[in-house]
Specification:
single chain, Rossmann fold, seven-stranded mixed β-sheet, five-stranded mixed β-sheet, binds guanosine-5'-triphosphate, binds magnesium ion
């Protein structure tokens, strides 16, 4: 029986064979499997692709066994910690390390010369009751593109593009960052509700920080940035402005599109610490499963407290929660 594979399949398969990076290979293999028509004629191809996927997963989990890959894996993949992972990228000297230094517990090198940062560095930022992981990275320019940058960006939940308003060439420099990522098939976009038709490309949710905002006295650079990036969230920041830095913390949290749900025991007061993290639209049942798998099954109903609700309102398992709701499970 003929396999009847679409022409794009062959194109993507060529990409897949040429790719050397195990993470990207895994992504392409998953995409190939998804594209494959599912019928008798492709049974063997499907099985082969599934075993390749399993092999790539193993390679990623055990990088040491694949020899030289071990060192690369250390910088090219940073395991997610906390409620979400946000990678800061941008041209040289734009202030990426200063932001990570000011927002997190990490202590990156901040310097008044470009190309100061040599390797990615992760730190944890506290936002009210949650921790968010921020990653500082080396700059992207016409002179430098660390090959692992594509994977760091692909694996992150969100990208924060740091633009330097003190730099008269900021637009050229930031355009270059986008171009260099696009060459590696990563597209920075304000939202990723729709992924590109071409499966070789990946869109990454991005927002922009108009940094060193005080250096842009007449606001003309921020205006030019907004014109260049319509639809993107642009947050003006400066390391010396606490209000602006707090607004950035909030914007980083909002960009993750998550909600915090606090749980309480019957008859006990709520402690607003260590919330359950769910995607926006998350339900009572999903919150229960996060606490314990069995909880999801046993759940009869829940009582909730929160903005716009009656205190102790009784709801079913499919009720959609909102940020900072308090839930009491009844099983
Ligand atoms: N005026 C002003 N300068 C800042 C601000 N934030 C950082 N800087 C300065 O900008 C310079 C570069 O800061 P870094 O944080 O090292 O920049 P970077 O983007 O990490 O640079 P690379 O690692 O080389 O890519 C330093 O001299 C900082 O003191 C700010 O808000 N306003
Ligand atoms: Mg730096």
């Amino acid at each position: 029986m003929p396999a009847n594979l679409p022409p794009q399949y062959y194109e993507l398969e060529r990409e897949y064979r040429a790719e050397r990076d195990p993470r990207e290979k895994l992504r392409l293999a998953q995409e190939l499997l998804r594209m494959m028509p599912k019928h008798k004629g492709t049974d063997k191809l499907q099985a082969d692709m599934k075993s390749k996927i399993a092999r790539h997963r193993k390679e990623i989990a055990e990088p040491a066994k694949s020899g030289g890959a071990a060192k690369a894996a250390a910088v090219d993949y940073i395991p997610r910690e906390g409620a979400g992972q946000i990678v800061l990228i941008g041209p040289p000297n734009s202030g990426k390390s200063s932001l990570v230094d000011s927002l997190t517990n990490a202590k990156p090198l901040v310097a008044d010369y470009p190309y100061a940062t040599r390797e990615p560095l992760a730190g944890m930022m506290t936002f009210e009751t949650v921790q968010i992981q921020l990653i500082d990275t080396p700059p992207i320019s016409d002179e430098l593109y660390e090959t692992y940058m594509s994977n760091l960006v692909r694996n992150a939940d969100v990208v924060l593009l740091v633009v330097d308003l003190a730099d008269e060439h900021m637009l050229d420099r930031v355009n270059l960052v986008l171009e260099r990522l696009e060459e590696r098939r990563v597209l920075l976009q304000p939202s990723v509700d729709v992924q590109p038709d071409d499966p070789r490309f990946m869109a990454k949710k991005t927002f922009i920080c108009a940094h060193k905002a005080y250096e842009d006295e007449d606001g003309s650079r921020q205006k030019a940035l907004a014109e260049r990036f319509p639809g993107f969230t642009i947050v003006p920041t400066s390391i010396i402005d606490d209000d602006a830095m707090n607004a950035l913390r909030r914007a980083l949290f909002d960009s993750l599109a998550i909600i915090r749900v606090y749980t309480k025991h019957v008859g006990k007061p709520v402690e607003k610490i260590d919330p359950v993290i769910l995607p926006i639209g998350g339900t009572v049942e999903e919150a229960a499963i996060e606490i314990h798998k069995d909880f999801g099954k046993k759940l009869k109903f829940a009582k909730i407290w929160g903005e716009g609700k009656f205190d102790g309102q009784r709801v079913n398992r499919d009720y959609q929660l909102t940020d900072e709701d308090i839930v009491e499970f009844h099983i």
